[in-house]
Design a protein that fits this description.
This protein is α/β, with parallel strands linked by helices and 84 residues long. It contains 3 helices and 3 strands, in the order H-E-H-E-H-E. The chain has a 3-stranded parallel sheet, with helices on one face.
């Protein structure tokens, strides 16, 4: 999950593969980031990756839906891959 935030800040990252991202920073498996929920949660951070190439594997429904909508709006549908 930390790779998502790194990719948002680092312009040289060419794409991401996220496997089983947590549904929220409230989940015990999510990284503890002080104050992050004041700005956004994991599905929104993943959506902000558009139009960066992204593969989501075994992602929660909200993450998949938010990413699909963000990539559609960015006209980058072809850069989003969702798998089981």
């Amino acid at each position: 999950m930390l790779a998502t935030y790194a990719a948002l800040l680092e312009p040289d990252i060419g794409g991401l593969v996220l496997c089983r991202p947590p549904a929220s920073h409230m989940d015990n498996s999510a990284p503890p980031l002080l104050g992050v929920l004041r700005a956004l949660d994991i599905p929104q951070a993943i959506g902000m990756l558009a139009p960066l190439p992204l593969t989501l594997l075994q992602a929660p429904a909200e993450c998949r839906q938010t990413a699909a909508e963000a990539y559609r709006l960015a006209r980058a549908d072809d850069r989003l891959k969702v798998g089981n």
